Amino acid sequence: MEIRHLDLLRDIARRGTLTAVAAATHRTPSALSQQLRTAERELGVKLVEPASRGIRLTAAGQLLAEGAEDILQRIARLQARVEASAGAPRGQVRIGTLPSAGEVLLPPLMDALAATAIQIDLDDFDIAEEDFAAQTLDADIVIGHSLTGDVPTGASGLISTVLTREPLDIALPQDHPLAGRLSLSPEDVIGCDWIGVPHRYPFDSIPVAIEQLTGRSIRRVVRLRDNHLVEALVAQGQGVALLPRFTTRARDGVVLRPLTGVRAERAIVALSRPDRHARLAVREVTKLLVEIGRDLSETHAHDRHHRA
After folding, report:
1. Helical H runs in the chain?
2. Which end of the chain is less congested by CB atoms within 10 angstroms, N or C?
3. Whole-number Cα distances in Å, 304 to 37, 262, 267, 277, 307
């Protein structure tokens, strides 16, 4: 069995269509079809069959795709041992990140890697929590978040490493009647106009919890993804919002206040598929991200203690 054939079958099982595999791996569908025919000839079994979406794996193809996961993980671990015997980790590590997390994690990471043989390839995306797991098909490390636990929804089969836990504060215009308080409760903010996030986005779970706790509805004047745009509208007096504490600079006209009475914290996590995580360079980058996340938490805890 050739590893490249097993890898292709695994990719078809994960992505669903040959077109999707071709786009992700920068090959043509015809080239992949040719590889499938070669694999079928060498293995002596039919691996794919026609389906409404193009093709699907046969029972034999599915069996090989499932077995490929274990084989490719073992190969990755063996490669990691070879790398370790050769010295420091090296190679390219692809990182996909939520912008509001990458903003504070990636600059110090790039500094830490400047003198190493590890190169970083970056991508960013602002997506719903359950969509982070799918991004690990194309990235070695995906930096995402969850408001419900330490593993984002849909990521249970992945290696999930908590990098830091970040409070989500209420952002208010500095002249707002509530701005003089040290902290705010659900009863304080339920009557405010809110600048919210799209449905299914993790931050929306907190206003929903406030509604359930108080038995009243929040009026969302608009729903936006970009935290900096949200902050600009708060400064202009359009409403209050939830903003992450570590990445919000609190521009002129905006103050941040802790929210009590409901869970208002997100876990920022690094997600990797087991075969990707086996690589020495991926583990080294994950370790550095954990250290950066810990320093971030300690710095903000220290600053908050002194302000208090």
Report:
1. 3-15, 18-25, 29-43, 59-86, 99-113, 132-135, 186-189, 205-214, 227-235, 274-277, 280-307
2. C
3. 63, 20, 19, 35, 5
pLDDT surpassing 90 at residue 206: yes
Res 307 pLDDT > 70: no
Distance between CA 117 and CA 162 in Å, rounded? 25
The two structure tokens encoding residue 245: 């504490």
Domains of the chain, start order: 3-84 (1.10.10.10), 89-160+268-307 (3.40.190.10), 166-265 (3.40.190.10)
The pTM of the full predicted model, rounded to 2 decimals, is: 0.80
Helix (H) or strand (E) holding 266: strand 265-272
Distance of alpha carbon 116 from its chain centroid, rounded? 25
Place of tokens 């009647």: 177
CB 203 within 8 Å of CB 197: yes
